Amino acid sequence: MADAAVHSTRRVLVAADKFKGSLTAVQVAQRVTAGLRLVVPDIEVEALPVADGGDGTVDAAVAAGFERREVRVAGPLGEEVTAAFALRGDTAVVEMAEASGLQRLPAGVFAPLTASTYGSGELLRAALDAGARTLVFGVGGSATTDGGAGMLAALGARLLDAHGEPVPPGGGGLAELASADLSGLDPRLAEVELVLASDVDNPLTGPKGAPAVYGPQKGASPDDVAALDAALAHYAKVLETAAGPKAAEYAASPGAGAAGGIGYGALLLGARFRPGIEVMLDVLGFAPALERAQLVITGEGSLDEQTLHGKAPAGVAAAARAADKEVVAVCGRLALAPEVLGRAGIRRAYALTDLEPDVALCIAEAGPILERVAARIARDFLS
Ligand SMILES: Nc1ncnc2c1ncn2[C@@H]1O[C@H](COP(=O)(O)OP(=O)(O)OP(=O)(O)O)[C@@H](O)[C@H]1O
Ligand SMILES: O=C(O)[C@H](O)CO
């Protein structure tokens, strides 16, 4: 009986990202909750699905009470897609991947040189039209490497070739850029707070720049990477003339290389860079939820080296550790040693592959296996 009383006062916060390819963040929270309750039926669980600015960011905001707004915008190759942003009061969460993400490529065919962020600019404009005064611009998971040129064009910039014609869409077309005029940018941008919520802190170009580091995952060959790097460097030089020397500073700033350089475009628009997970934890109301919890369960599909570089579980664990709360993680696959996890503030990680070594089955049956994993956490930490 004493035990049951202890259980009933326990509260668990489930603040995990999606398992990309098998479960959304909302589903992860549901399955973890169900698994914990198999062992401790009266456990109090608060679900706060999280995201780092990349794909899933709008869904996390909606799960936290934002309203979902849908708009028709241009996809990466110009075809119309339905994209959503999230709105609560005068705060909008705009996810670039909704318009210009890899999952928006027609038939999934990469277009490293031609994919454009035009639709992301349309999405920002729709958020302004809806009355947003604070725009959290979540970036990552992009199909594009255009330095945000498409986005700037959608918001009123003129990016012209030597004949005075708009440059072709995509990063490849920027090699033809001869002049830029930012005077037609939507004036509302100057009056709002724009936050660049980025999953990475790379600069625009160079060995750590957007083309070199993230081009290949968008289908860029080594030649494409070289062409995109040169085109983006040229673009930044032309914009220096149009926007002044601060444009040169932006190209080297952390986050400029996020989402194919849309970070750079956002900085030009006056955005303030912040690590995406930190911004999202604020937007989602993580701090008060953390205060109410005794145990935090975070996670994502693959806990690996990348996780430590600003991904959602690392951000959740850092915040929880600062509040002296115990953190465990769930994941599909685990590629971090216990001492590395410990240093990141994660007491223990539980992988689906611990229970089911067949990865294909882990993915196909992710939900039920995650419930079993959560039951194990309940036995280890809550009984
Ligand atoms: N149910 C599962 N079982 C085993 N492995 C899984 C499962 N679901 C996802 N994964 C692994 O996790 C990977 C996806 O990782 P993750 O969810 O951390 O996203 P990511 O690629 O790091 O991107 P993001 O930055 O959006 O989080 C998949 O490619 C796969 O290897
Ligand atoms: O979209 C991309 O290029 C990566 O997610 C890094 O931001």
UniProtKB/TrEMBL annotation:
E.C. number(s) listed in UniProt: 2.7.1.31
SUPFAM superfamilies the UniProt entry points to: Glycerate kinase I (SSF110738)
Pfam families in UniProt: Gly_kinase (PF02595)
Single GO term (MF): glycerate kinase activity
Domain of life: Bacteria
Top EC group: transferase
Alphabetized InterPro entries for the sequence: Glyc_kinase_flavodox-like_fold, Glycerate_kinase, Glycerate_kinase_RE-like, Glycerate_kinase_sf
Key words of the record: Kinase, Transferase
UniProt keyword Transferase present: yes
The family this protein is said to belong to: Belongs to the glycerate kinase type-1 family.
Protein name (record): Glycerate kinase
Source species of the chain: Streptomyces griseosporeus
